Amino acid sequence: MSNLPKIAWIGLGIMGSPMSENLIKAGYSVTGFTLEQDKLDRLAAAGGTVAKSIAEAVKDADVVITMVPASPQVEAIAYGENGILENAKSGALIVDMSSITPQTSVDLAKAAKDKGIRVLDAPVSGGEAGAIEAVLSIMVGGEKADFDEAKPILDALGKTIVLCGPHGSGQTVKAANQLIVAVNIQACAEAVVFLEKSGVDLTAALDVLNGGLAGSTVLTRKKDNFLKRDFKPGFRIDLHHKDMGIVTDAARNVGASLPVGAVVAQLVASLRTQGDGGLDHSALLRGVERLSGAEL
User: Fold this and answer.
1) Pairing verdict, β 63-66 and 49-50
2) Domain 3-hydroxyisobutyrate dehydrogenase-like NAD-binding, which positions (predicted)?
3) Strand 124-125 to strand 136-141: parallel, antiparallel, or no bridges (unpaired)?
4) Tens digits of residue pLDDT in 209-248
5) Longest dimension (CA), the chain
C-alpha cells in the first residue's frame, strides 16, 4: 500500500488529462471524473480509476484537484448536494488549478473552511506542452502549511512553484500572467506580419530575434504556430478572452490602468466574433493579418 495521499481529479481537458497522468507516473493513486467518456477512458488506460460522479471521486480522497474552464464551472463542481464540499471528507485539501476570478477563490476557501476542508488556489502557466512535460509554472494562494503539504504533488506537475500570498493571490498572479502572454503574442503576431510583408526570411528572423532581448518563452513556444499557421488549440482564444476579462475587471477594482492590455483584450474578443474562439491564442496572428488586408 502506498503512503502517498489519495487524489481525486475533477476536470480532464487539454491540461487536466496530461497533468493527472503525470501524477499517476509519480506513483499517486488518482480517481478522476469528467463529463467526457473518452477522457475517462484515457485516464483508465493511464492507470487511473474512473468515478461515476464527483461525489464518488472525492469521498475517500485526501487531496481533490480541480481543473475546469472558469468560475461558473468551479462553483458548479464545488457547491450543492452533489458537489465537492458536501462529499469530501473533513480535513481534505482542495487544490483548484483552474483559472478563475480571485474573489471566487476567496469565497470557495471561506465556504470550505466551514466544512473543515482546506483550499489552495493554484492556477498554472505553460499550456498543453508544459502540462505534458510537467514543467508548468504554478502560482499558489492560501495557507503556508497547506502549500507545504501540497508541494510534493505540485512538484510532479511543474518546475516553478511559488506561494504568492493568501487565498486569491494565485489567481491574481495568473491574471497578470495572462495579461503578459496576450500582449506578448500580439506583439509577436504584429512582428510576423511586418517581417513577411517586408520580404524577410521569417524563420531566420524569428530565430535571431528569439536569441536577443526580444526573445521570450512565448516566442519559443509559439514560433512554429506562426510559421506553419498551425492553430490547433493548446490554449483556446475563448479561454484567453475569459482571462482578459478577469484581469481587466480585477485591475479596475484596485485602480490599476491597463491601456495596452485593454486594447489586446478587444483584439482577443474580436477573434471570437469572427469565429476563431476555438483556435489557439497564437491565432491572434489571424487578426493582424485581417487588419493588414489578408483574406483568410
Assistant:
1) unpaired
2) 168-286
3) antiparallel
4) 999 999 999 999 999 999 999 999 989 999 999 999 999 9
5) 64
The amino acid present at 106, given as its one-letter code, is V
Beta strands 30-33 and 7-10: pairing type? parallel
pLDDT in tens, 33-56: 999 999 999 999 999 999 999 999
Contacts of 116 (CB under 8 A, 6+ apart): 90, 91
DSSP label at residue 166: S
The residue assigned the cell 510532479 is: 156
The three-state secondary structure class of 80 is coil
Q: Catalytic: 232?
A: no
Q: Any bridge partners for residue 93, and if so which?
A: 63, 118
Query: Which candidate in 174, 222, 223, 242 is catalytic?
Result: 174
Closest listed residue to residue 171, CA positions, set 76, 247, 112, 68:
247
> By the 8 A CB rule, do 273 and 286 touch?
no
User: Given its phi and psi angles, is residue 168 left (phi above 0), alpha (psi -120 to 50 degrees) or beta?
Assistant: left
Strand 93-96 versus strand 118-121 pairing type: parallel
Ramachandran angles phi, psi of 96, nearest 5°: -90, 110
Residue with cell 483550499: 119
* Overall residue count recorded for the chain in this entry: 296
- N- to C-terminal Cα separation, the chain: 57
Which own/partner pairs from 224-230 qualify as long-range (CB within 8 Å, at least 24 positions apart)? 225/280, 225/282, 225/285, 226/188, 226/189, 226/192, 226/202, 226/282, 226/285, 227/202, 227/203, 229/285
Give the integer Cα–Cα distance in Å for 162 and 138.
Answer: 6
Task: Find where cell 477563490 sits.
Answer: 105
Residue whose C-alpha is closest to residue 202's, from 130, 271, 285, 129: 285
Q: What is the pLDDT of residues 192-214, one digit of tens each?
A: 999 999 999 999 999 999 999 99
